[in-house]
Amino acid sequence: MNQPIGMFDSGVGGLSVWREVASLLPREELIYFSDNAHCPYGPKSVEEVILLSEKIVEYFISKDVKMVVVACNTATAAAIDHLRNKYSIPFVGMEPAVKPAALHTKTGAVGILATAGTLGGRLFNMTKQRYASNVKVVMEVGTGLVELVENGEQYGEKAKELLQKYVKPMLLRKVDHIVLGCTHYPFFRPLIDEIAGTNVTIVDPAPAVARRVKDILEEQGLLSKAMDAPKYHFFASGSTDTLKELLVKVLKVDIELVDVVANVSL
Ligand code: DGL
To answer: For position 118, what pLDDT does the model report?
Structure first.
């Protein structure tokens, strides 16, 4: 039970899920892997994303994890079925949060901002058909956004320009909910809130994913019983500059108390 949980993303985006898991489950040891040497995953083929995800999961297994959180919508869309078939540990993926948005919309229109891989995936299209067949779903591919977060440029002019380009068409079509379908996007929250205005609800699925992690650990009797402060480890296949900056400035993590390792090759 006191084994760690592995979490991964194509880069730092999954930290938006990490912070929810760390805050809901403060006794759990967490190993985060940022595959930034191969970022972005969005434009890659399903086969490529499966291969990269598999290598990360093998790495986690060598570290004896009890569960893997796929903290990336694109990797969930491409690889989660494959991973569940291949490995016996539990996997939690990113749910395309179209369902709560479609349930609560008053205008009958919801927006979703995600990568091409996520919007083209079976999971999203099934969810859309199942829960949002009676509402208008305005989809936008957030080309270029992941790279801005990876470069630490999520508050700059370029970010504002791109977000306006993607959010404005949604507003024109009267959406009252915008689903963040990529784990990098919550790091744009101040700008997205500013552009969308107060009448639009922004849906970030991360808290629901953290609750799902807790439920599964509980059901399977896997919750950590550790009494000492949890250990947090961060690994990246490339540089850790942006990761460290986000940890310190946005997540308020004391960098002296965690491991951060760059250039891990799988
Ligand atoms: N954070 C990933 C996601 O949730 C980004 C995908 C990418 O690297 O393009 O989809």
So the answer is: 92
